[in-house]
Amino acid sequence: MNDAYGKNVSMLPGLPAPANQLRLPAPVLPQFDSDFEVAVIQAGINVALHRWPNLQVQQEKLITPPGFVPGWKPYWQKPKAIQIEFPDFIDYQKKPEENEEAVRSIKPPVAKKDEEDKKPVRKCPTRIQPPADALSMEDRLFYILQPPLEGWLAGQELVMPFEPFSYQYEGIAWMFAQKSALLADEMGLGKTMQAITAIRLLLRSGQVRRILLVCPKPLIPNWQREFKLWAEELPVTTMEGDANRRKMLREMKSIPILLTNYEILVRDLQNVDEEDLPGFDLVVLDEAQRIKNRESVTSQVIRRIPRLRSWSLTGTPIENRPEELASIFEFMGVVPARSNPDLRQLKKLAEVYILRRTKEVAQPDMPPRLDRDAILELSNCQQAAYETAEKEGIVQLNDMGDEITIQHVFELVLRLKQITNFDPLTGESVKMDRLIADMEEISASGAKAILFSQWTKTIDWIAERTSQFGAMVYHGGVPTKKREPILKEFEENPDKHLLLMSYGTGAVGLNLQFSQYVFLYDRWWNPAVEDQAINRAHRIGVKNPVIVTRFICKDTIEERIDLVLRQKREIFEKVLGDGDVSTESLSMNASEVFGLFDLKAKAGKGTKSIGPQGSDHEKAA
Amino acid sequence: MAQNNKRPECVLGFYQVVEQPNGEMCGGVLITSHLGRPIEFQCSLPVRPNATQQTLYGPTLRPFLIGELIAKALKDRLQVLPDVLFVNQPEALNNQTWNSIPVLCSTESVEAMFQQDFREEHYWVASNQEKDVTKILEIMTKYVPDSADLQEPLIRVEQALKEAMGQAA
């Protein structure tokens, strides 16, 4: 049989009928001519090429039955994730006010504005940045993910009585994130408010639960008042009463904010064993220059308190020597105990742990402070008394030879300064004459003035001679309970034009921005305290320029002290400003103190503070 | 003093993915109260698509990574599910991943979406979520303050992711 191509096909032998339907052409071997002889070896296989292979088809069962063959589906491993949970917000029940108004407050009508003004201008939000010493990712993300302070505080979650300034928002955000912080804003920029708000945020967000706030005794009412204003929902407990009650308050862990003063704290904790000391999540020191001497009992007691966060507030972290800042840093835990960092190291630490803004930067629109030095010539009687005292004093000092100490010189300085204030024999005072002249003008214009002196006796003496201006007295001799009413009356009574204050009692923490004039009747020992005093009047809320008059008697010890004060100001600039830090130290040393009277300093005196310690001096006077 | 353990009246979610020049992606979900206070944050470790994924997904690789792979991993770990999710990347608009949680995207996208306005801001939403979105916007109108900036938390998420990627690198 032939196939479609005409080739011969044959049936396959041995196959079943259906399989035999398969017809294959007979294999054709290619034949081609070649130029060479091909020898065909008779091996037997050549014949096989011309023969059909023997094929057989069999049916076999499959080993596994055929099923659904799945398509390939990718499987991707889930990415790993990090989780951060935030503590729950803590509610504090607000105490209902007895005299609280029953009606809701109504917003005053707002005048219609132009279409262009309708869209609110969005301020750049203040974000909380993680502190430099936060290393773990969770810690850093915790701070980054907090809402901007403006949203948090401006009426959404926490209500503020007044809108803080932008630099205050920055300060709050900075403190919130810092475990060790020194807020050193210039006086009058609202350190108290920033600290209270940062405390409020920490408490409400569950970051801290127990806070100890230490301040000078006269400032306790001030802190109470400010807490009521800025965080009225927070319960503040003042450490007062007898020792048992104070111990109970100290040990009650449910008290979120414990307010106390340095003296009580030292008295209560001085003899407490290490293991019995109460622990706090945060310890805040107001006027932290109180621990400037690291060897003082106050510093030692405060450093022993177990705590997780340490904040300091002061406008004057350095009053006399850079070592004072090191003492505050030691409390904050940023320098090892008893270390003595040099100026360069202090400056480096200050960049991380100190936030300081000046009024010029923070409040460029604030009315200026106008300083004027009133250089006065002593009256004849004063001049005679002064010369006699000076000559006798120097002779006495010289006669003492090697027994002379800085304290002896210091006593002479005090005597001479008192004579420049008034002649004790005749009562003549060139400063008083000038003060009365100025006050007549001030009272006639309805303005108010505050006057500072370092002596309570001088203040009382001035008060007797300025009663026509409604002079009021505010110094360490006035009982604490009577002090607040005095300040209130001075503010509200239009017939009270003059408030006489001591540096020790009136220089810190008070808000007297309604006073337009400040008199420094005599000079304190360092410019920082003087600045604090002046800033009672020149602070936030001041509406008019503040005129500061420094009384300096010509050719007296006051002129020489003025020179020393200017030099001290330079030290402050060197650490906290952009000054040159190459000079090792500009601290007052004994040679300079002795130099006030051209006396030779004894060798090996070293660096010493010439000033008295705060209110002790008032008592001494 | 009382711990406030109850769930806020309205819980908001904010989802964002950050891509690095080397192709790695890192995603984060921030859960906040209606006042913007953070409640929970989930953040993925950097994800780099492998060659198979790149071949298989081709041009849909980004939507796959942002809308499915990273989003699902984060969603599965969330302890507090949000009532609404805000995103600013259209690739994140994957309602299969987020199921019934309405997703509002502040960036316009062309695929099967409708526009929804809320307090002068435009949002784009997947079409099948129209009803859910209307409902949640009513709740938000009630609880979210007028002054709230609903884009701001996404900035926080972005900053947190950059911080996390910087530390992971």
Plain-language structure description:
The complex is a heterodimer of chains A (621) and B (169). Chain A has 621 residues and is α/β, with parallel strands linked by helices. Chain A folds into 2 domains: 127-362, Rossmann fold, CATH 3.40.50.10810; 369-620, Rossmann fold, CATH 3.40.50. Chain A is 37% helix and 12% strand. Chain A has 24 helices and 17 strands. In chain A, the strands form 3 sheets. Chain A has a 7-stranded parallel sheet with strand order 7-8-6-9-10-5-11, with helices on both faces. In chain A, strands 12-17-16-13-15-14 form a 6-stranded parallel sheet, sandwiched between helices. In chain A, strands 1-2 form a two-stranded antiparallel ribbon. In chain A, helix 21 (527-534) links the parallel strand 16 (517-520) and strand 17. Chain A is elongated, with a radius of gyration of 44 Å. The model of chain A is unreliable at 1-10, 97-121, 578-588 and 600-621 (pLDDT under 50). With 169 residues, chain B is α/β, with parallel strands linked by helices. Chain B has one domain (12-168). Chain B contains 5 helices and 8 strands. Chain B has helices at residues 51-57, 61-77, 95-98, 130-143, 152-168; strands at residues 2-3, 12-19, 25-32, 38-44, 84-87, 103-105, 113-118, 121-126. In chain B, the strands form 2 sheets. In chain B, strands 4-3-2-5-6 form a 5-stranded mixed sheet, with helices on both faces. A two-stranded antiparallel sheet of chain B has the order 7-8. In chain B, helix 3 links the parallel strand 5 (84-87) and strand 6. The longest helix of chain B has 17 residues, at 61-77. The chains are: A alpha/beta (621), B alpha/beta (169). The A-B interface holds A 74, 76, 78-86, 88-93, 122, 125, 127, 130, 137, 140-141, 144-148, 151-152, 154-157, 205-206, 254, 256 and B 1-5, 27, 30, 32-33, 35-45, 47, 52-53, 56, 69-70, 72-74, 76-77, 79, 145, 147-149, 152-153, 156-157, 159-160, 163-164, 167. Strand 4 of chain A pairs antiparallel with strand 1 of chain B, so a sheet runs across the interface.
